[in-house]
């Protein structure tokens, strides 16, 4: 299931790039993130708790950054296991473009789920995935521009 979107951030591209690579900022923005730990410059371990329809699960997973072209773009890939709920995996290509003093952040992502989650139906999974992606980038924008009162 493919997801894409765009977020205008009132900050220079270099600042946005640094924030996208800062585990403390990412932890604040990932919906349901319980823990995010940097293993190496390109690898993170995460614990995320989510409720999708009637299914609640904690996912333990790995996040990897690849195709890194500072301060322009990268691919963030992740895979999480949620016990009997199943698994989720996917990636997002993130591109940063300068637009005057602002930065346009474009993302296109693809996600797959298996196990109990897959039984919920593609429409629910698709709409939930789109909502989670939008929430992440909206919260990211709010944290970065100091409007964190709006985040959440």
TrEMBL record:
<dbReference type="InterPro" id="IPR010419">
    <property type="entry name" value="CO_DH_gsu"/>
</dbReference>
<dbReference type="Pfam" id="PF06240">
    <property type="entry name" value="COXG"/>
</dbReference>
<protein>
    <submittedName>
        <fullName>CoxG family protein</fullName>
    </submittedName>
</protein>
<dbReference type="InterPro" id="IPR023393">
    <property type="entry name" value="START-like_dom_sf"/>
</dbReference>
